[in-house]
Amino acid sequence: MWHYWNLGLRCAFVAVFLVSAASKVRGRSAFAEFAASARAIGGLPAGRAAPVAVAVVAVEAAVAVLTALPATATAGLGLAAAVLVGFSAAIVRALRREQTVRCRCFGPSATPLGRVHVVRNLALAALAVTGLYTGPPAGLAPAGVVLALCAGALVAAVAVRFDEIVELFLIR
Length: 172
Known about the structure:
- The structure is a single chain.
- The protein is mainly alpha-helical.
- The chain has one domain.
- The chain contains seven helices and no strands.
- The chain has helices at residues 2-24, 28-42, 46-68, 73-96, 115-132, 142-160, 162-169.
- α1 (2-24) packs antiparallel against α3 (46-68).
- The longest helix is centred in the middle third of the chain and has 24 residues, at 73-96.
- The chain is globular, with a radius of gyration of 16 Å.
- It starts with a helix and ends with a helix.
């Protein structure tokens, strides 16, 4: 059973990090918005925002590639957990400075970063850590593979559309 869990997690993290990286580089304006967001979150000088933004996108792409490949999946999940904890720490620092920064996690958004983003990131990090303690998929039944991939896609969809889901249930 844990082999299916590992496969589903890998599917989820490949999708989440691919969507995240692609949304930031889909055009000049998308990248500029992300770089401005990174600058505000990190309290960076103007000249450092673009290199940091490039590094974030590169790390996100690396997580997706490493997690997709069976030989490096464990490294990918470990890097995913570390990156998500790092993102959470950056968000917490911005919140403590009482900064209002738009979430550019998955492209343009009007939603400001908040505690819910920290919760989302830490929940995903916890899932990634569980993947470190499960074996790589081997000898899996086709029906189980389909179910694991569908479950992973569902987790990814929830993570990517998290802001909209929270907004849907937000009581005002």
